[in-house]
Amino acid sequence: MNISELRKKSMICLIQADIENPALNVELIIAHVLQMKRSELFLSLNITLPTDLVQQISDFIERRSQHEPLQYIFGETEFYGFPIKVNPNVFIPRPETELLVEKIFQKDKAATLILDIGTGSGCIAISLKKLIPGCQITATDISEKALQIAEQNAKINDVDVDFILSDIFEKVVGKFDIIISNPPYIPKNEYEDLPVEIKEFEPENALLAEDNGIFFYKNILQQSKEYLTENGKIYFEIGHDQAKRVKQLALDNGFSEVDVLQDLNGFERIVKIGRKSSC
Ligand SMILES: C[S@@+](CC[C@H](N)C(=O)[O-])C[C@H]1O[C@@H](n2cnc3c(N)ncnc32)[C@H](O)[C@@H]1O
C-alpha cells in the first residue's frame, strides 16, 4: 500500500469515528511512524510502504479512532520545546501551561528555591530548571506512577529536580521563593461533560477538584505562609472562570498583591500572588 492509499483509508476510519481534524491526525500519525516531517509526506505519496509500517500506522489509527490522545499513542510530547514522555498515568502537558513557565522566567529569574506542587510529567519543574539552571527545584505529586515518569523526563532533559511523593505540602520541608501549581481544578459537575479524550484517558486525580474546583488553591494558600520566604510568591494556573474566586481566597489569606494574566485565547489563566513589597 502506498502512502496516498493509506492516508485515504485512515481518513475514512477517523471520520467514521467522529475524530476532529481527521486529516491532521492521520498525517501526524503517518509522519510520526515514518519519522518524517508532515510537510515531507506530500512529496512521498507514491512511496509503497513495507507491511510492518502499514500495520503500525493502522494500529495507531485504530487507537486514535477510540479517541486515545495522540500524545499517549506516541508516548511523548513537547513542552516549551523540551521532550516530555507521557503515559496514561500522567496528565498531558498543555500549551497554556507554557505561559506559567514563561511568566516566571520573565518576572522571577532571580528565584533560587522553587516548589512545583502536582508536577505530573514534571514539565513545569524541568523546563524551569532548564531556563534557570542556578535554581533548586523541588516537585511533588501524590501519584507515585506520575513521579516515575517525571524522573525519567528529568533524566532525558539532563536536569536535577528533587521529586517528592507528597499530598500537597505533607512531606515538604523548607521555604521557597516561588510556589507554582497547576493543580486539578475541574469541578465535579463539569467533569462528566469533558471530551472523551480527556475523561476516558487522563487520570481523574489530575483533573477533578472538590469545593467546586477550588480545593487545591484554598489548601495551598492556607498553608503557604509556612513555606514561603519573606518575599515569596505563588503562581497558579487556573480554570477560565476561577480568577475571581482565587483572587478572593488570596486576599482572605493575607496576600495583598494579586495579578491575573490572560492566555493567548484571552482567558484568565495565570494568577500571581504575593505581598505588597514582593510583586
Ligand atoms: C493538572 S495536573 C498538572 C500536571 C503538571 N504540573 C502539568 O502542568 O502538566 C495535576 C497534578 O496534581 C497531582 N495531584 C493531585 N492531587 C494531589 C495532591 N493531593 N497532592 C499533590 N499532587 C496532587 C496529580 O497527580 C497531577 O499530576
Q: What report would you give on this structure?
A:
The chain is an alpha/beta fold and 279 residues long. The protein has two domains: 3-66, Helicase, Ruva Protein, domain 3, CATH 1.10.8; 89-278, Rossmann fold, CATH 3.40.50.150. 41% of the residues lie in helices and 19% in strands. The protein contains twelve helices and nine strands. The strands form two sheets. It has a seven-stranded mixed sheet with strand order 5-4-3-6-7-9-8, sandwiched between helices. A two-stranded antiparallel ribbon has the order 1-2. Helix 1 packs parallel to helix 4, helix 2 packs antiparallel against helix 4 (51-65) and helix 6 packs parallel to helix 7 (123-131). The longest helix is centred in the first third of the chain and has 15 residues, at 51-65. The radius of gyration is 21 Å and the shape is elongated. The chain starts with a helix and ends in a 5-residue tail after the last strand. The model has no long low-confidence stretch (mean pLDDT 96). Bound molecules: S-adenosylmethionine (SAM). Residues 91, 93, 97, 117-121, 123-124, 140-143, 146, 167-168, 182-184, 205-206 line the site of S-adenosylmethionine (SAM).
Which CATH class of the largest domain?
Alpha Beta
Cα-atom radius of gyration: 21 Å
The whole-number mean of residue pLDDT values reads: 96
Indicate the CATH topology of the largest domain.
Answer: Rossmann fold
Strand order of the largest sheet: 5-4-3-6-7-9-8
Give a count of the beta strands, DSSP E runs of length 2 or more: 9
- Termini, distance in Å? 60 Å
Reported CATH architecture of the largest domain: 3-Layer(aba) Sandwich
What form results from the Cα inertia axes?
Answer: elongated
Largest sheet: 7 strands, mixed
Count helical runs. Answer: 12
| Structure class | alpha/beta
> What is the share of helical residues?
40-55%
Low-confidence stretches: none
The H/E string reads HHHHHEEHEHEHEEHHHEHEE
CATH homology-level superfamily of the largest domain: Vaccinia Virus protein VP39
| Bound ligand species | S-adenosylmethionine
Strand content: 15-25%
Number of domains: 2
